[in-house]
């Protein structure tokens, strides 16, 4: 019987009622008294010298309150970068200033040049068109390899377009080269991990407010991590101490990484609200989102895999160019390095690995973390090169993988790329996958497709993820300029109800439901006795927010710790009430009892005693029942799994249809299976989108060609199949109290190679053997051209 | 400014608008019905779908003045009279057909229009009908399942896990 409440139950989401009835409270739904509206004038060319911005006419337009240019922000800092990578020679990465509004030069189409604040949005928009720009066009730097080679500089003052040249593990390089020299077989693959626009359905919004009577600033913003924004914007940009700055991220309509970062508009409206003594609201259009929200991926990679004659992996060597865009977004440098290089072992025992990453500046939108962040890039190249190796060596791709798996009895497993996998069972997830994907029945389905003139293919692959990046002291050594703990306060009310204030943030993940399930389970009370509060720095403890599939593994762990503190104190109170020893008190089903007796006191009575302490050990124990905990994990968690995709390729048109997709994941323990499955579904659609449909495209002048849903192909309902997902293979995480691993990104990490492997498989089975790789997205045009050779 | 009147969720509503005011802006800003969302500016995403005289319409592509006198239904009008969730809304909750909730109002309104036209749609028909509604969170699986369930059909065979 499935559980009907608590940990393991598919509890229905409580947040759904407001979303389904139109009563969600997203940032754009908020309007403050006397609110003015901001619109940004944005660069229409990718690279140019700014001679003059003449705002005279615009300032005189109806309703215009003020026009801000870079000069107005001369007294504030630039947008900070939260991660400093050290290159292979021991030097710090190049870190150009990232101004709020462009200073002296335009560096990408979409860069903010001026901010117009007016009584209405329409007036601000009209005024933006009246600003006269005097600029001198410069050649745009778009291609990464050309950028790295020098020539035109995106940032003249730093002297190079190469942000860093990173080697990992640098000390292994010579040994890796030697292994390649003596390998029986080397498979090489050059590929592109296509640039993506994250596209949460809610565009970004920021409202700045200022109370001059208390010198209090408030920023309402579409953020995944309000505390991070408060710290970055307060400390590095505007110089506002935390106690004078409140950041609120109410209901947020999806993030996928793109709402982690501190954006210029947030600082600009907060700044303007004080200058104007009025609330200032900015709402992004979708077109604006395409040219301002940080993009994801955009790697060009050469990977080589060395094998012995039996197919055992001997070494991996990669060279990657990673696009940073025009400026360093908040966590951009970490994505192609520590979130990518450390995953290059995958699910396999490869003794020697060397990863080289050259991060370059180009005249494009900044690139940063997008669902998976570095891990999809690692998984894609690894799982593609393994498939290619299997084909070259005449081996079964599943057997080649199995042969090289870290075996179930080999955990904890030290990889050659720093990380230690705590638990896993890759054979089990592969077995499960072959079953749920009905691989045995593939041949019959292929024959059926062939009769219809279609080429059917099957692609399989594995993935491993690293979630809940930590511990803080380690990531600090790796260049992080932040801690990566999480926090929670568990507040028990006098009549027994509980409010949990978490530093995590939900923007679709369902924390309000799952976190309540955990607390209800721990204490043995109903889930509706527990309320979850998040998203407001004024009423939550300092926390790092939600990204990297960290909420339950890190935020949930902090909450469990705080709840355990509460329970321990409650046991002392119960012991007093029951006149028993604390050691004999047991908590079960919402009641404290004395072991081996029928004496008990219920949860509510203990809570009441804590707040009405008439019969209470006041000399030993403070009244009240409220505890806070911070949790800093000792390691990442390592979800892993195996995915299978079945496609039909139309050889006449090159069109790829996904016929079936199956995912067997190991997420450790699962709190709410329904929500976990939903997370996988969404990730799969994004991964299938990357593989078949999506791609940010720039022309050679740095003009964005894919700037709306008319030309950026988002996955729609009829582009994707119903998915078959399974999470019954569970090897619980050994180092967090819930034994959970994180499930948010798996689908997006594991699915692109499965799709591409399936298409290549379909072509080969159809006799089209000259095609060994097609770069994503596998549009009909690309597939057809590949077929034609 | 001109005055416009229409029936919204069964109640007569009116307000002053500019000629260029879009229906979605009138609903959100004029009437405070913020359940209808704006997710794009090219009439592609469907977060703004409402019903005008019973037909699904993208309210970002209609001038408020053009629907004067019409019967408009928004997500706020889809519940039962006692305030509980309507059949389609309840199916979305039961089958986890939403995550961040931003596309959800448009999805529910499109689903309602589909079921009014086609009370027992197949999975393929549902997927095809939803072409004008983009969801970035759910991968559509549970949305399809929810609509199937709301139509009274067995969901286990179609969207098996």
Task: Describe the 3D structure.
The complex is a heterodimer of chains A (789) and B (161). In chain A, 28% of the residues lie in helices and 22% in strands. Chain A has 19 helices and 28 strands. Chain A has a seven-stranded mixed β-sheet with strand order 3-5-1-12-9-10-11, sandwiched between helices. In chain A, strands 7-15-14-13-8 form a five-stranded mixed β-sheet, sandwiched between helices. In chain A, helix 9 (375-393) packs parallel to helix 18 (746-765), helix 14 (511-523) runs parallel beside helix 15 (551-578) and helix 17 packs across helix 18. Chain A is globular, with a radius of gyration of 27 Å. In chain A, 59% of the residues are buried. The mean pLDDT of chain A is 97. With 161 residues, chain B is α+β, with helices and mostly antiparallel strands. Chain B has two domains: 2-77, Ubiquitin-like (UB roll) (Roll); 87-150, [2Fe-2S]-binding domain (DNA polymerase, domain 1, Orthogonal Bundle), CATH 1.10.150.120. Chain B is built from five helices and five strands; from the N terminus they run ββαβββαααα. Chain B has helices at 23-30, 87-94, 104-117, 123-129, 141-150; strands spanning 2-8, 11-17, 49-52, 55-58, 71-73. Chain B has a five-stranded mixed β-sheet with strand order 2-1-5-3-4, with helices on both faces. The longest helix of chain B is centred in the last third of the chain and has 14 residues, at 104-117. Chain B is elongated. Chain B starts with a strand and ends in an 11-residue tail after the last helix. The mean pLDDT of chain B is 96. Chains A and B meet through helix 1, helix 17 and strand 28 of A and helix 2, helix 3, helix 4 and helix 5 of B.
